[in-house]
User: Fold these one by one.
Assistant:
Number 1:
Amino acid sequence: QKADPRDAPSRVVAALLDVRTGEGGALRDSAVLANEGTPSCSAFDGELFVVATSLGFLVAWNLHTGDAPETNAHVSAENARAAVAAVALVPGAGDAPARVLSGGADRALMLWDKALRPLARLELGSPVTCLAAPGPRLAVAGTQDGSVEVVALGPPGDAEPDAAVAAAGTA
């Protein structure tokens, strides 16, 4: 009987390496990515490193604190996980911290705080394929149908989650 490859131990390792020297190493608790889909995108701002997967799983490592990573799932309006194709770090402003923006196959943009607590959800007309967040109140999303959407984000200091988004559940 042939072994099922899904039963094999996972070798998932998230690592940061210096391009010039090759030095670096695995991130703490990178095994949280095991069995959560294929890493599909990532973002890094020098402090926060976020990886998202094909099964809608998000992991955020705060490299300044060295704390265990935060995790959550990009969920659709039907409360099912949706593949994440794009993630961006939204810069903070003043004392307000950076935020995380994810875009998925469910056509939704999800705005998160640094601990991956959902703050807001916006549905676009087509699955999201790429994201950029050039400023604390603005994001640009490319979609599968070829559209480019410019999105106004809430104020960076507004850390109160949308009640419907928070009720949608977390991983």
Number 2:
Amino acid sequence: LTLNNYLGIFTDSNYVPNSQICLRDFQQRIKNDVDKIHSNNRRFAGVIVPTGGGKSFIAMAEMMDRQDSKILYVAPRINILRNFKKNIVKYVADLDPEGLADDELDIIVKSCFPYLELICYQSLNPKDEEKLASYKADYIILDEIHHIGGASWNRVVKKLVDNNPTSQVLG
């Protein structure tokens, strides 16, 4: 048993249907655990994977199960959102994202996930209850959730989740 085999680096049996995403074995095990958590009527599933471990691919695999659902993806920085869009273009739309302008990326992403909204934590305002409730998300992905450790971020994320009471949450 080699480390590569253990991590599933050379495995090609974990393809996500209708995409070019091939999860490593450990990512597939995590996705299966997330699915089990959500199927047991639990709202919140947390994923802890080291930097470069492919959390975005796990999130995209979960999104593929919900392509026609309202998905809200929240990240701490615009460059994370842009990289995530590029991954969607490359691995879901099966197109080369290099050289595409932001508006071109947005059009392709929207064709893959018609009800996906990508926002930064900074755009959430705890006083704007109407906006927080307007998302009506079925699935909320909180990327880099450790960034919300401060009191102000905890409050706004709590309000976001409270104002979307039927959503499932991945963080």
Number 3:
Amino acid sequence: TVTSSCMNTVSAPAGIGAEVMAEGIVINVSDTLTDPRYLPLGRVSQMRSLLVAPVQSGQRRLGTISVQSATPNAFSVDDEWLLATLGVQAALAIENARLFEIERRRAEEAEALQHVTEPLISRLNLREMLGAVIEATTKIANYKYVSIFLLEDDQLVARAFKGYTLPLPVL
């Protein structure tokens, strides 16, 4: 079972995870009972061995990945290499997911802008066009108060607005 939640948070500088984050190295603890850096999280653990690797892409560290065992001296150099490799793969997957989310938001914003500009292009009347911008903005962005000020003779003049009860001033 894989869970994805922030049940325990370790703040630097404390423990093995903080050292892995600071140094970017894999730490193999052969016996948690004798290693002073080991900080049990939550309840008392029966875990005796701990292997922690950075989740990193290049020099950018995003977190840690760890495995535990109830047996002392459970992890080998091969296990260290494997966990370090998994940490790099996890970092790439995390960065890709973040980039995908950013691109998804940008695509949504571009689509919203297209919805705003399409009706504007077809309108020649300034008042109608500004009203369409206000309506589209309130609909797409769910804003209660929207205004458009235009520069006229070195002053900003309210030319369209929605949600205000009083006329807007000249700025």
Number 4:
Amino acid sequence: VKKQVRKKSEKDILLIDDTLASFIGYKIRKKFNFVIQDSRELYVDKKWPGLGRVHYHFEKKMYHLADYLISANIERSNIMKEVFNLETLPYPYENIRFLDEFEYDAKELDKKHKDIFKDKNVVISTGGISVPRGTLNLIEAFKDLKEYKLLIVGKGSTDDYNSAMELISKE
């Protein structure tokens, strides 16, 4: 990384995409003319384990040092402005994906997934399975909510998947 950012250029933009990139982004930010901090995954909990505290600390610093802040939606922008005492409202980038009408068959999808929403109130978590991000806490919380169904969408490591399946099977 050092070799790539030695010389400052008028075209250089640094995009810090997540909490884990915040530390290195903080360290190299002065080599760039414009810094963007993408905080669509908003964290306001100060009780991160281990190195997570370090990354979170630098992400919060970058909120005040970046030229441009991005949040996932206007609600998160307002939370960030208030909680982190920001001068300006972060730009809400609504990451809504639309399917092209030719990319899917609506009747086929309806047929395939019609029973998902049939019996219970459904909550969909699109964060994948990640023990460090609290998936096991989410699964545990839903064990007591019998009138709800939790669907977890996304990827995760084999170890995290196995941990989630082990917790689910402990009924």
